[in-house]
Write a structure and sequence with these properties.
GO terms for molecular function: magnesium ion binding; phosphatase activity. It comes from Paenibacillus thalictri. InterPro entries: Cof, HAD-like_sf, HAD-SF_hydro_IIB, HAD_sf. This protein has about 280 residues and is an alpha/beta fold. It is about 30% helix and about 20% strand. The longest helix is centred in the N-terminal third of the chain and has 12 residues.
């Protein structure tokens, strides 16, 4: 039997309502009960990964911010981190400030933004463990949303030039896909960076060499798990490296064509309990 299952979150572990379906929850808990390691590897905040891991009952190191952070599943504290070099983060902000695009930067559970807007002030709510029976309000999720802060700092380049806060990831967003394409092409030439598509209107920036695969390589080396004993599951471009690397990479039925091409197998979609289907087929068949 495989020894480790590593799951992307959005579009994989979570359905389109951002919830963990009953069959997926049951299948994962059965794996853990049978002493198979399960981890999460995502672009989300450490706190979001930790909250979902607690809900699932996971006890293996977790991967956040596209591999920039490895965290303890029990305490949520950082075990290993690879931030973007401070002067490079400042240069990213300076370049974006010459365009008409939006950018923000991720600290450890802090989102640094120029100013609050309708999108970023709701960011903590996009990271909680959602109960489909509860409206997404502060009163209903007070015990979770406080784990993530949104910090308006004014001009980001000036803030990044003077702060001691480490930043692990940046996200660039523009409603015009052509502008996103041009910015993606520009930052792809910066050797200090790792650039990953996360949608037609957005992409993520990490330090060079940071991705989910490299983080999983580290946690597997620490745990003595060979690559052939690892199963990874994902649906989008920030999953490609780990899908190609693992002993068995599985793409979601809702995944894009690049994810499916990188994987050795394809399961059902996230809305059809694809994670549970894969667990039944590859772990308990």
């Amino acid at each position: 039997m495989y020894k480790l299952l590593a799951l992307d979150m959005d579009g994989t572990l979570l359905d389109n309502n951002k919830t963990i379906t009953g069959p997926v929850l049951e299948a994962i808990r059965q794996l853990v009960f049978n002493d198979v390691h399960v981890t999460i590897a995502t672009g989300r905040f450490p706190a979001s990964v930790w909250l979902h891991a607690k809900y699932l009952g996971l006890n293996f190191p977790l991967v956040a911010l596209n591999g920039a952070v490895i965290l303890d599943p029990i305490t949520g504290s950082e075990l290993h981190g690879t931030p973007i070099e401070a002067q490079i983060a400042r240069k990213i902000a300076e370049y974006i400030e010459t365009t008409d695009s939006y950018v923000h930067f991720y600290g450890y559970n802090i989102l640094f933004v120029k100013e609050l807007n309708d999108m970023n002030k709701r960011w903590p709510y996009a990271n909680v463990v959602i109960d489909p029976n509860k409206e997404l309000t502060e009163d209903n999720y007070r015990g979770q949303v406080h784990h993530i802060q949104v910090n308006p700092v004014g001009q980001l380049s000036s803030f990044l030039a003077g702060t001691d806060n480490r930043v692990y990831k940046s996200t660039v967003i523009n409603e015009n896909p052509e502008v996103v394409d041009a910015l993606y092409a520009e930052f792809s030439t910066w050797k200090e960076l790792e650039i990953t598509r996360t949608g037609k209107r957005r992409f993520d920036i990490n330090a060079s060499g940071v991705n989910k695969k490299t983080a999983l390589q580290k946690v597997c080396a620490d745990a003595g798990i060979a690559v052939q004993d690892v199963v990874t599951m994902g649906d989008y471009d920030n999953d490609l490296e780990m899908l190609k690397w693992a002993g068995l990479g599985i793409a979601m039925g809702n995944g894009n064509e690049r994810a499916k091409a990188a994987a050795r197998a394809v399961t059902a979609s996230n809305n059809e309990h694809g994670v549970a289907e894969a667990i039944r087929k590859y772990f308990f068949s």
